[in-house]
Specification:
Distance between the termini: 57 Å
Strand content: under 5%
Shape: globular
Helix content: 55-70%
Largest sheet: none
Structural class: mainly alpha
Number of helices: 12
């Protein structure tokens, strides 16, 4: 009952956030993504979740009964949460956000990218790679002695998962302007893949999917609760995105509504991981949309 209450509570908050965003009509936060773009993207994502759950019906999701050999999961959860808080504070001090701009190039994403330089983009990527990949892997693989399997770092086995991930990845590429997404030089795609790989895909995969989501599922004794809780934490990791404002009550209300939308994708990431048994899966269900920003990568790095 408790896990259903947690899920229903999140769904209610998510629906309420849509009421706020639709009523606001983009007036309070002019640089925020267009709600209609998010609504379409979330509808597609829900279809992907349905397909993923159907594919995973022959395996049990990760929870306290899955036998994943995690030692002291509650203590590790607390440590990971503290570390995430430190990263948010450090990012704020260094003017490094969770993302360069909004995926899909919606709203004021172009303006956010035009404020970037080669140095600022590289600083963003290196900060997240060092803090979100190198440090946690060194600790959990080296110090704690976990294996890659325990950290869910194996790709899901089977042709059906390869086909699903390929289809999900392609759907993300359709979120932006196809003339921009599919009209760039080859070097631009390589640079974007490396940039977003080290700055977004891998850090989120390690911090949230490899480490946090399975431990929350074990502590909460439910994969559903683990996915929801990891999604909420994922949303709270984004308080300083370029389009959010906290100066007035109306700005705060609309910003919280947008954090709920980010949380929606965080929950989908958790479901992708806990039901497929692989931290890699979430990249294909929620993150390839960043490749629609390839045009800005080409511009910033002057790729020909």
């Amino acid at each position: 009952m408790r896990r259903k209450s947690l899920l229903l509570g999140f769904v209610a908050a998510w629906i309420l956030s849509w009421v706020v965003l639709i009523a606001d009509r983009g007036r309070t936060l002019p640089l925020a993504p267009k709600p209609v773009h998010y609504l379409v993207a979330e509808a597609v994502t829900l279809v992907l979740v349905f397909v993923l759950l159907r594919l995973a019906r022959d395996r049990k999701p990760i929870n306290h009964e899955s036998g994943l050999p995690i030692r002291r999961p509650a203590t590790e959860c607390a440590g990971i949460l503290l570390y995430l808080l430190i990263l948010v504070a450090a990012g704020r001090a260094l003017d490094v956000r969770a993302h360069v701009a909004s995926a899909g190039m919606s709203g004021g994403a172009a303006a956010a990218w035009h404020a970037q330089t080669t140095g600022s983009v590289l600083r963003w990527a290196l900060f997240h790679f060092a803090s979100g990949v190198v440090v946690p892997l060194a600790f959990f693989l080296g110090v704690r002695g976990y294996s890659p399997d325990t950290l869910l770092l194996r790709f899901p086995r089977g042709a059906k998962w390869v086909a699903f991930c390929a289809t999900a990845a392609f759907s993300g590429l359709l979120a932006g302007d196809p003339r921009v997404t599919f009209g760039q030089p080859f070097g631009g795609y390589a640079a974007a893949l490396v940039l977003f790989g080290v700055g977004t895909f891998l850090p989120v995969m390690i911090l949230f999917e490899s480490l946090l989501a399975p431990r929350l599922a074990i502590v909460a004794r439910s994969a559903v609760s683990g996915a929801v809780l990891s999604g909420v934490v994922y949303a709270l990791w984004h308080p300083f995105e370029f389009y959010l404002r906290w100066g007035t009550p109306s700005e705060a209300a609309v910003s919280v509504a947008w954090l709920a939308q980010i949380g929606f994708y965080g929950v989908v990431k958790g479901i992708s991981t806990l039901w497929s048994g692989s931290a890699w899966t979430h990249i294909f269900t929620t993150h390839t949309v960043h490749m629609t920003e390839v045009g800005e990568v080409v511009r910033v790095f002057r790729i020909r």
